[in-house]
Amino acid sequence: MFISGYPDWVWLIPNSKGAELNELYLRLVENAISVPDNSTDKLCEAAKAAKVNVVIGMHERNSETSNSSLYNSLLFIDKNGIILGKHRKLIPTGGERLIWSQGDGSTLSCYDTSVGKIAGLICWENFMPLARNAIYELGTQILISPTWDKSPNWIQTMQHVAREGGLFVISACMPLKMDNIPEEYEFKNLYPDGREWINVGNSAIISPNGKLIAGPLEAKEGILYADIDLQDIIKAKRMFDVVGHYSRPDVFNFSINQKGKN
């Protein structure tokens, strides 16, 4: 089973190259996931066999309508192999908008699991203050933040989010090497000569006080592990609870439109 990774070609190929983009988009859609389908069945079986909770990023078809558009999505599966739900990225960034549709508020959710209450925001959604506030108000304890951003600034953002929300953050960034791209794809020639890494990763796990407790894992493939204590969340919120004693509902009004588009 193969799940497509990040389509970095959206930043390389100009939109005037329609024929080339059409072929790449066709490949992407043909290898995308519908929820549920045979691919998600296999993921559920693997989660159940390993007795682990799974959150995985994917290209998701809009199977409820045309089945030809894509969302940048997160799929949540519990340790019993049950699909808990999915989150569709609210707005793609820059060149990503040429291939991904906009999600809506109906997928801003938090899920109870055996390890705590888990939610997810995808890449630069984490820069959106109101999206973060929505996640905090759901009582999230572990925020999953997959990204393509490998920069030191991103790690700093994740540390800020962990402190701001008083939660654990798992930032997963996909490492990708030039050798991972098949020679058949012409866009591979658009990268500088001699380049080894397209993305070095920099995945990390961060505690509610903003400290790195695993990673960053840079320029290598691997698995990060960390033991967490959910009581650290309560300790972190003694001084600052952004949706608790430090909120001012008499001053600020916040709401989420959780009605879907369809």
Structure description:
- This protein is an alpha+beta fold.
- The protein is built from five helices and eleven strands.
- The protein has helices at 18-30, 38-50, 129-137, 152-165, 231-236; strands spanning 54-61, 70-77, 83-88, 111-113, 116-120, 142-147, 168-173, 176-177, 197-199, 201-206, 212-218.
- 21% of the residues lie in helices and 23% in strands.
- A hairpin with a 2-residue loop joins strand 4 (111-113) and strand 5 (116-120).
- The strands form three sheets. It has a six-stranded mixed β-sheet, with helices on one face.
- The longest helix is centred in the middle third of the chain and has 14 residues, at 152-165.
- The two termini are 30 Å apart.
- The mean pLDDT is 94.
Run of helices and strands: HHEEEEEHEHEEEEEH
- Percentage of β-strand residues: 15-25%
Structural class: alpha+beta
Placed side by side, the strands forming the largest sheet appear as: 4-5-6-7-10-11
Distance from first to last alpha carbon: 30 Å
**Secondary structure tally: strands:** 11
Tally of helical segments: 5
Low-confidence stretches: none
The radius of gyration over CA amounts to: 19 Å
Mean pLDDT: 94
Largest sheet: 6 strands, mixed
Shape summary? globular
Q: Bin the helical content.
A: 10-25%
